[in-house]
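User: I've been going back and forth on whether these two constructs are worth ordering. Before I decide, could you fold them both?

Assistant: Sure. I'll take them in the order you sent them. The first construct and its structure tokens:
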Amino acid sequence: MTGIANLDIAEFQVKVNRFSQQYVLDWTCWLNTPHCSRTAQFGVIMRRWQACRPNKMRRTRAENLHDAPYLEDLVQQAAQHLQVLQGFDIGDNRPFSSQTQSALAGLWDIFENLSYDGRARKGNTGVVGISKAVMLLTNGQVGPAFDSKVRRHLGIRAIDNAKEWIQSMCFVSRDIQAFMNKNSMTLQQAAPIQHATLHTGRLYDMALGPG
């Protein structure tokens, strides 16, 4: 298991700086997308990130490639849960209240439907797509995206349901707190200056994600 708990500030900055530049550009594009265009941009970025691979990911109603629900339907269904998560910080000492866990479980159930066709996972979306979707829609408050590289770093073989996803994020939270205690600063204070305004979940994703 290799998280960030034992890193010093310089080592953490090296890890963040080696994160894939394409993903950095995608994230900047997402943060700068006007609210009226966000659902379409969500689809573009998620497909670029191959979030539902090998299944097919749902499209907007205007694209008319499948039956309902469409992307905008899923985003609308998620809104009430995303509202609960406003102010969430995975680096807090006790970030997972019962309300937070309920909201995360609700988001898992919604974004399992992000795929509309495919043989993998009986056609459902798995943790990679779900965690990427939630990380995007919370602007990085909830993270990391649990792709294979992040899971390998953390020694997590599989995440098959909302309970395991939340348990994995509890582990991440403890890892972040250990780093902050060791270095006496937040992830934002430790991050390279160009990334210092990003949310904790996104910074952690960058530290462990693809380079």
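The second construct, handled the same way:
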Amino acid sequence: MPEGDESYYTNSAEHPQDRYEDYVVNDLIGDVEARFPVADEPGKRAIIGISMGGFGAVKLVLRHPELFVFAGGLSSAIDVPSRSFSIHRIGPWRHHASIFGPLGSATRRENDPFLLARSANPAKTPYFFLTCGDQEGLLPANRSFAKLLQERGFKYEFHVVSGGHHWHEWNAQLEAMFHSLWQHLATEH
């Protein structure tokens, strides 16, 4: 997994040098293809993440569907760009504002998976494998996102699993996620 520095794999609104989306879709893919004997075609490429990385995987696939065949998001922090101000979580809110800009900004809209899914072409968007624990605060947002995918006709699967926001839950989902990934790599070619 590439280091994300709590960036949500987004080009920062406040810090122009923090170009994490560019890093993944331009630099990282090119570097991996240059260094390792991997397939260099989008039909063989997947992106997977957990929590912030799950948000990044989903968002990057929606913004760059031509680059991937599969996106895996485990306990994705899918609603971060649309979260409103909370005095109880002022630190995270300030951090998110530095990445996504102020509420209602173009940067927030351009990086909000809900808005991206509403305008994306489901027929040209890769397969989504999504999970969230039944004891996570992220579950309502993940359920809403899965409902949107269903309503719009995206190819996806969403699993509510037992547990909270921790490695024990995520490790338990890896076998099913990789099984789904292998199935979708095989059907693309």
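Notes on the second construct follow. The chain has one domain: 20-188. The beta strands are 46-50, 70-74, 127-133, 156-161.
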